[in-house]
Structures are given as structure tokens and as C-alpha cells.
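Input record (one chain):
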Amino acid sequence: MLAFKIVGALLVLASGTGLALGAARYERTRLRVHDALISMIFYIKGRIDCYAMPVEQIMRTMDKSILADCRCPGQVDSIEALLPHVKSYLDPETYRVLQSFGAGLGSGFRDEQIKRCDYYIELLREKRTQLESELPARVKTNGAIWMLCALGAVILLW
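The corresponding structure, as predicted from the sequence alone:
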């Protein structure tokens, strides 16, 4: 009977460790998604500036690695189609900002669109810098929470 308790306790602790590692990976993925979004807006800005391409064509010719980093499984035609794939990695304010970017993209003159891209790149860079500074603390906190939950479950079930 004691052997089953020990095995069960080890399994609960292993699941807590797995959840802690998953939470750390999620936080690092959030940072990569922000990097990919910044790269995407740089790409859009370059295509508007150099080729005066329409937004749909820009999105269809976008590098697949940028879309993959944005957790998008395939090609998209607009920013609005991309946003559901990244929603779980963004806070509500950043999501709202990207919705605003997507809604206003393609309207206006070339210079206005380039300034708009610069503005949103700067907003995303600020958010990315904030996430990067919070990353070590968030990883440690998430890891500690999941490990303590697993330890508490072991104590309660013992």
C-alpha cells in the first residue's frame, strides 16, 4: 500500500513539474509572438513603402516563418484573420491595439500608412520590452505556484 502512495505522490509531483515547464514555455512563446508581430509590421511597412502593394497581397506573400511564429497554420488575407491565432498570447490591450492596426491598414495615403506602421511597431516594442523584463519573475512565479500546488495535493492525498 505504501508503494502505491509513493508512486502516486511521484506522479502528482511530476505533473506539477510538467505544468511548471509548460507555463515557462508559454511565457517564452508570448515573447516570440510579440517579436513575430513586430517583424510582420516591418514587413508590411516595407511592402507598402517599396511596392505600394495592397494589404491582401502583402499578407499572401508574407514569409511563412513569420506566420508560423504568430501561431498561424497557413496563409491569411488580413490582420483580422491572424488575430484569433495570437489572441491567447496577448493581453487585451495589445489585442485591441492590433485590431485597430488591422482596421486602419490599407486606408489612406502611403506616407500615412508608413507612419501608422511606425507607431504600432513602437507600441509593440514597448510591450515586448515590458514582457522581457517581467519574464524571469513570471517564470519563477508560475513554476513555484505549480510545484506548490502539486506538493499540496501530495500532502492532502497522503
